[in-house]
UniProtKB/TrEMBL annotation:
TM spans (from-to): 27-49, 61-80, 92-113, 120-137, 143-164, 171-193, 205-224, 236-256, 262-286
Keyword Transmembrane: yes
Subcellular location: Cell membrane
Organism: Shewanella jiangmenensis
Protein name, UniProt field: DMT family transporter
Topology within the bilayer: Multi-pass membrane protein
């Protein structure tokens, strides 16, 4: 289930690129997050009926949900905006790998919150940064505008994960997810009304990309993640989900006729290696190496 979720999210970068053939970035984000929020309503109803979500009749429940949704949704809006606008100026493969740096950045930012960070995180971060250099930095030591936006977005994706981690213990996760999607959609629509021109014809033409990015990427993949992580170790889950970056590259090649040179492929490989290293404690690797076979 986790591998399927990673594949769905990876190919979601393709849908996001294709959708902007007909819609501008903020309009596309607004619509896809509205669809994503609506797709979670049946799941919320099901969990409430099964008694998995308690206290929905209390004022305190909705007060906490509002605060959490505003906090997480605001950060989500910034991260998604950087990602969507950045996709106008870079490839789906680059966007996928650079966005995936949030896996390394989360424990680094956690230092501010006094979270412990192991040596594997710093090693993984170093390897990933070297990979980012080969993927995005040119011979003149400049980074493309689109890749820079994706890098800024990765920082906010990491902040978003920490925010969700903070509020998820206070609010039912699926309610928090639905609320933050609605906040992100509303903020995107406000910006779109001021900066963009959206037509009904454009929305109709982008319906396929919107359906995938909203219904499949959010509704289906989120549900798969929630169900799967009940039976998977968090570190193992993070490693599998990091393969989203690989599927983004595959999707770019298959559906967008993108190509990666040997330098970029080497950089992608290093970035993926760094993400994997950051999730596996070095003591675990040493123990596994010296463990005698049964």
């Amino acid at each position: 289930m986790l591998l399927l979720a990673a594949a769905i999210w990876g190919f979601g970068f393709v849908a996001q690129r294709l959708g902007m053939d007909y819609l501008e970035p903020f309009a596309f984000n607004g619509l896809r997050f509205v669809i994503g929020a609506l797709s979670l309503l049946p799941l919320i109803w099901f969990l409430r009926v099964r008694g998995r979500i308690k206290g929905m009749g209390d004022t305190g429940f909705w007060r906490r949900a509002l605060v959490g949704s505003l906090g997480c949704g605001g950060i989500l809006f910034i991260a998604a905006s950087f990602q969507q606008v950045g996709l106008l100026h870079t490839t789906a493969a680059n966007a996928g790998f650079i966005t995936g740096l949030y896996i390394v950045l989360v424990p680094v930012l956690g230092l501010v919150l006094k979270h412990s960070t192991g040596a594997n995180t710093w090693l993984g971060c170093a390897v990933a940064v070297v990979g980012l250099y080969f993927l995005s930095v040119g011979d003149d030591f400049s980074i493309s505008f689109g890749d820079a936006l994706q890098l800024a977005g990765a920082l906010f994706w990491a902040m978003h994960i920490l925010a969700v981690d903070h509020y998820a213990t206070r609010i039912a996760p699926v309610v928090l997810a639905c609320g933050q999607f609605l906040v992100c959609a509303l903020a995107s629509f406000v910006v779109s009304l001021g900066l963009e021109t959206t037509t009904l014809e454009g929305v109709k033409a982008a319906w396929g990309a919107l359906a995938y990015a909203g219904l499949i990427s959010v509704g289906v993949a989120y549900t798969l993640q929630v169900l799967a992580q009940k039976h998977a170790h968090p570190a193992h889950a993070a490693i599998i989900l990091s393969l989203e970056t690989v599927f983004a590259a595959i999707g770019g090649v298959m559906f967008l006729d993108e190509s990666l040179g040997s330098r970029a492929l080497f950089g992608c490989g290093l970035m993926l290696l760094g993400m994997l290293i950051s999730q596996v404690p070095l003591r675990y690797l040493v123990k596994s190496r010296h463990q005698k076979p049964a």
